[in-house]
Design goal:
mainly beta, Metal Binding Protein, Guanine Nucleotide Exchange Factor, Chain A, globular, binds zinc ion
Length: about 170
């Protein structure tokens, strides 16, 4: 166990199924959106939202991610059980970036800059103009009644917690 893991975590996060959890023991720096083509593919979205943290201030606290070397100099971590993209790092770097969406409280980690702008999708300019609705607005009432979340809650859980179908929605 590193020195950092004996301190209280400042931020925690993990994958959707809960098999992999992590902790940050310092505030991330240089939080950003990366629009590069590799990040688009790696997260399956229009960009990756990433929070860099020094490796010494970071620990995997439950399980470990599977990894894919997206290039000869970079490695990306993801949960092999549920597929959640979790991290990006250059192989020789003292920094690791975690995906903002996998943090337990992503609203506390806003991005401050864009990277990879050569691949930025032009339709992002129009996002603010699009109509919006809540999750419930978009789900039929009978489906809402049958819906039970299998997503790990947005906080650490006791040792021995296992992914399962029997938890309440929103817990
Ligand atoms: Zn998972
Ligand atoms: Zn990128």
């Amino acid at each position: 166990m590193s020195e950092a893991t004996r301190c209280a975590a400042i931020l925690t996060g993990g994958c959707q199924c809960g098999a992999v959890r992590y902790a940050l023991y310092a505030r991330p720096e240089g939080v950003h959106l990366c629009h590069c083509r590799m990040c688009q593919k790696a997260v399956g979205g229009p960009f990756a939202a990433l929070a860099p943290i020094r490796v010494r201030d970071f620990a995997w606290t439950r399980g470990t991610p599977d990894t894919f070397h997206s290039s000869s100099v970079a490695v990306r971590g993801f949960c092999s059980a549920c597929g959640t993209p979790l991290s990006f790092a250059y192989s020789d770097s003292e920094w690791i970036d975690v995906t903002i969406g996998s943090l337990d409280r992503p609203a506390e980690t806003p991005p401050g800059k864009h990277l990879g702008t050569e691949s930025r999708l032009a339709w992002l300019d129009r996002l603010a103009e699009l109509p919006g609705g809540t999750t419930d607005d978009d789900m039929e009432p009978d489906r809402q009644a049958r819906m039970a979340s299998h997503q790990h809650p947005d906080h650490d859980t006791p040792e021995g917690w296992v992914p399962g179908p029997d938890r309440q929605r929103g817990v």
